[in-house]
Task: inverse folding
């Protein structure tokens, strides 16, 4: 057997990201050398992005089933049961590499792609979220990237008319060379009308709908599976260009088609476009496919099969229809002025056959593309354990108000209104709480009911870097806590696992540690993983990002009238902390912003405690006893109190027991887990304390609402006006520099 | 009151408009596709909803204003019947000549979504009769091109004729004279950038938009 087909060299194989071992498998499965088209197809299907070759061995550790899980990982998105015959369908996905190279289009198409994953399954998208990580605020590229990414997310989401209701944004020098843009979409469907990639049978027409295929995005999946170097900006042509107007029409047309019972299987064309959508449906149906490339709607002249199969042009779907029902699709898609074409049919051969201009240009078995994709047990070693760091080990500052001001106006804590004001948060008229509102999770009503979805994204990369296992646990626990703090029952999560180069043992160690910690938390909290995405090689010139396993979580509020936020505290309310405070300072915001250090162990998460405390708080919310509820996380009690005071426009008099074992700065800024700050009227506070005693939940009175400042033991004042100005002012101040530079 | 909501490709507030009208009037409005050339028999009130008709390509509202349904809307307006355009609907109504002026890119050049403070400048219109003159409202805005512009003579004229119906409390987009909503000379066609249909529910956006639909119902 010749090693290489005509026109192919070892160099070309290498450029396709296929190593010698993988190439040998291809030769074996085909029994001959692949041609250029076939090589391209193997290249994208076996890329890290599509095949999960470095991560599959560990993803199986996640609990993925549960009473409310209708569909776990493996389909376009996860599906959970929210009662009354309704399902919530959601997923989070990364668009990191393209967003760094071309921030507007990279972020925009990230939103478009994740929306398609959700409406492909029959859901009407009802909410978008995003988790963003940028480099240091003073890094030369940061403001440019922030500006482009935010405009791109808004430009796409606003136009398709799906509200962008929440998210999170971090800044850290570890992301200077690789930003993270993780977008999450949430949709609603009827449980009896959900669509899958599986279900196709031989002899069914394959219908292409949506935009035409162009030369954009060729090899995007391969790019997203490699490290960056100084020449990475030359990869701009591999970034796709989005058209949210077409996406909006595609959503409406697909939902119309889905109401007709004409579909056998459906898949969006995302990464690796026509290749992965057709291969996945064929593989899941155990069938073959034949595509006539001449029939593919093309944007440009003289496109080759290689280009068409690898293009990542946006806003396209592939539908396998029930025979004889093609007209139904034609009528609907013509009405919406979208391209529609029968481009092939399913077969019983188990082979992928492509013909173009009268010639067979590809003829390969389907199974190896999906099933024989490489799976690596990459070697790893766990990072060195770091010692816990307590407030007692750190010098006590003089003025707590000054410290609080500094923390609340630090990059990660300051108001992100500059960002979320650019997102339409209200379209669809079901947003009960979004980024602008004092709520630990976004709240989106289930249309026409009194139920609501609570949605959050969470991850604390500082903790994951300090201790991947505890950090992984904490990411899941914080998401669970945020949902709980609104009164929701947490149901399930999606994840977006962002890491560096898995071929390095320490990076693989971070990856495995985070997964094992997350899995443990999901298990104890009955919070299964139903969908997700892995983004590796977030690394430039050998420097990796901090490990960032972003969690997107969904819960259900059974009755909109029984929920909590943190803006309802009023003068005279008693403030209580649920949970124990020991003054954990390792990898804390305080340590970074005040001491300029990032050492110490991550705070430990006791999952059983987490669950007990959360269940207690949820019961109190539903009993209607709280005026405000806020989880305690970054920046500790004082920052949670500051959020509550700003949102409620009411000061807080905090009280710290001078004889306490925990020093004042530990009490105020320690990041111990499993804690909530709650506010209640006096009688309710007494009832809460009685319940806590009976249920053996540690609850402590920490202050009283009133005045126009935050004080501690009557001293250390921070006036709310001053706090608000600093908190609101940081981000506009940063971004104005960009505007000035442009002038 | 028999209502119709016009749907263009790219409209995305059509369902919100439908639900708000149904909530207040008790009747489901007809959803009228842009390629129709006639309105349903007996239509009294037409709402042109927000969104990104035709993706805002060319100019916001420009292509929609040339669509098949537009002559029917113009003819309907000429009978004195009420027509309301919100956000992209406002842009479509100015592009079609039913309302004076134009909506340009926001002065800050960015999309702006916030709960805007409005003042009712004229409570003697069929859209605002249930409000008190000078009432302050909170109504959400969400747009990239809401910067109202007209030449000075036109602005003077519409101010003089009471055609300025809503003004911003804290101008979010650079609109001339803080104008947020206007009517035509006859007072039966109104355009506004803020979304009253997003302010008809205490659980979402507040209820300050309710009276607008109630005024319409009362005037029908």
Result:
């Amino acid at each position: 057997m010749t090693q290489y087909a005509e026109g192919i060299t070892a160099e070309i194989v290498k450029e396709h990201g296929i190593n010698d071992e993988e190439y040998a498998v291809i030769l074996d499965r085909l029994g001959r050398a692949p041609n250029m088209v076939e090589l391209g197809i193997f290249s994208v299907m076996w890329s890290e992005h599509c095949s999960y070759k470095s991560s599959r061995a560990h993803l199986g550790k996640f609990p993925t089933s549960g009473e409310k899980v209708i569909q776990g990982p493996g389909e376009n998105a996860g599906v959970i049961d929210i009662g009354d015959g309704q399902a919530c369908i959601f997923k989070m996905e990364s668009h990191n590499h393209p967003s760094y190279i071309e921030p507007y289009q990279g972020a925009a198409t990230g939103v478009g792609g994740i929306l398609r994953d959700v409406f492909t399954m029959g859901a009407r998208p009802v909410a978008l979220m995003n988790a963003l990580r940028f480099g240091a605020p003073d890094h030369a590229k940061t403001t440019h990237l922030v500006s482009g990414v935010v405009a791109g997310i808004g430009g796409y989401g606003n136009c398709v008319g799906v509200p962008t209701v929440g998210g999170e944004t971090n800044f850290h020098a570890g992301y200077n060379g690789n930003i993270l843009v993780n977008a999450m979409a949430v949709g609603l469907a009827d449980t009896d009308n959900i669509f899958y990639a599986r279900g196709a049978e031989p002899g069914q027409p394959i219908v292409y709908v949506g935009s035409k295929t162009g030369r954009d995005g060729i090899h995007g999946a391969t790019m997203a599976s490699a490290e960056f170097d100084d020449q990475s900006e030359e990869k701009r042509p591999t970034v796709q260009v989005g058209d949210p107007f077409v996406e909006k029409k595609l959503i409406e047309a697909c939902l119309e088609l889905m109401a007709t019972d004409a579909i056998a299987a459906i898949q969006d064309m995302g990464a690796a476009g026509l290749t992965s959508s057709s291969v996945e449906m064929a593989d899941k149906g155990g069938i073959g496919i034949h595509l006539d490339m001449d029939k593919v709607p093309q944007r440009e002249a003289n496109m080759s099969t290689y280009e068409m199969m690898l293009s990542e042009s946006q806003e396209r779907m592939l539908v396998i229809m029930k025979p004889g029902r093609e007209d139904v699709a034609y009528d609907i898609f013509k009405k919406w002025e979208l391209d529609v074409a029968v481009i092939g049919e399913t077969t019983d051969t188990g082979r992928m056959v492509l013909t173009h201009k009268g010639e067979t240009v590809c003829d390969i078995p389907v199974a190896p593309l999906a099933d024989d994709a490489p799976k690596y047990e990459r070697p790893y070693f766990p990072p060195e354990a770091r010692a816990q760091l307590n407030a007692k080990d750190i010098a006590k500052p003089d003025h707590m108000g000054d410290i609080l001001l500094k923390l609340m106006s630090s990059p990660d804590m300051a108001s992100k209104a500059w960002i979320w004001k650019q997102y339409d948060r209200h379209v669809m008229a079901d947003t009960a709480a979004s980024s602008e509102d004092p709520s630990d999770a976004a709240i989106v009503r289930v249309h026409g009911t009194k139920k609501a979805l609570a949605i959050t994204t969470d991850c604390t990369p500082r903790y994951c870097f300090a201790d991947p296992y505890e950090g992984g646990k904490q990411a899941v626990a914080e998401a669970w806590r945020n949902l709980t703090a609104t009164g929701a029952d947490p149901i399930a999560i999606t994840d977006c696992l962002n890491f560096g180069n898995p071929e390095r043992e320490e990076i693989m160690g971070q990856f495995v540690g985070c997964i094992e910690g997350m899995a443990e938390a999901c298990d104890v909290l009955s919070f299964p993983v139903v969908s997700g995405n892995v983004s590796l090689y977030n690394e430039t010139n050998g420097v990796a990002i901090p490990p960032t396993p972003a969690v997107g979580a969904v819960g259900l509020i059974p009755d909109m009238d029984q929920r909590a936020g943190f803006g309802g505290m009023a003068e005279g309310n008693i403030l209580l902390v649920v949970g124990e405070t020991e003054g954990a300072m390792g990898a804390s915001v305080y340590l970074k912003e005040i001491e300029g250090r990032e050492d110490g162990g991550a705070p430990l998460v006791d999952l059983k405690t987490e669950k007990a405390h959360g269940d207690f708080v949820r019961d109190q919310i539903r009993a209607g006893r709280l005026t405000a509820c806020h989880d305690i996380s970054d920046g500790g009690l004082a920052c949670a109190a500051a959020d509550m005071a700003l949102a409620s426009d009411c000061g807080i008099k905090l009280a710290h027991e001078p004889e306490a074992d925990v020093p004042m700065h530990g009490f105020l800024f320690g990041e111990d887990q499993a804690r909530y700050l709650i506010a209640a009227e006096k009688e309710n506070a007494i009832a809460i304390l009685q319940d806590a005693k009976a249920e053996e939940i540690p609850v402590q009175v920490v202050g009283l609402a009133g005045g126009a400042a935050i004080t501690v033991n009557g001293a250390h004042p921070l006036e709310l006006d001053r706090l608000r100005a600093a908190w609101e002012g940081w981000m506009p101040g940063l971004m104005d520099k960009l505007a000035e530079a442009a002038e | 009151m028999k209502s119709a909501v016009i749907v263009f490709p790219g409209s995305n507030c059509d369902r919100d408009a439908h639900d708000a009208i149904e909530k207040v009037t008790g009747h489901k409005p007809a959803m009228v596709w842009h390629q129709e050339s006639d309105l349903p028999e007996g239509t009294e009130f037409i709402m042109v909803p927000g969104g990104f008709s035709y993706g805002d390509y060319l100019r916001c509202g420009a292509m929609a204003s040339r669509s098949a349904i537009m002559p029917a809307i113009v003819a309907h307006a000429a009978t004195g019947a009420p027509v309301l355009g919100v956000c992209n609907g406002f842009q479509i109504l100015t592009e079609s000549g039913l309302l004076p002026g134009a909506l340009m890119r926001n002065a800050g050049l960015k999309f702006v979504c916030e709960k805007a403070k409005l003042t009712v400048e004229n409570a003697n219109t069929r859209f605002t009769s249930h409000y008190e003159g000078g009432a302050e409202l909170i109504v959400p805005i969400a747009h990239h091109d809401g910067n109202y512009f007209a030449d000075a003579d036109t602005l003077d004229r519409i101010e003089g004729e009471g055609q300025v119906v809503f003004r911003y409390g804290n101008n979010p987009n650079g609109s001339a004279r803080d104008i947020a909503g206007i009517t035509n000379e006859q007072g039966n066609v109104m355009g506004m950038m803020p979304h009253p249909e997003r302010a008809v529910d205490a659980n979402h956006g507040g209820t300050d938009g309710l009276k607008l639909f109630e005024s319409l119902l009362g005037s029908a």
User: Anything to note?
Assistant: DSSP finds 25 helices and 28 strands in chain A. Chain A touches chain B at residues 151, 154-155, 158-161, 243-246, 248-249, 336-337, 420-432, 436, 445, 560 (CB under 8 Å). The longest strand of chain A covers residues 124-134.
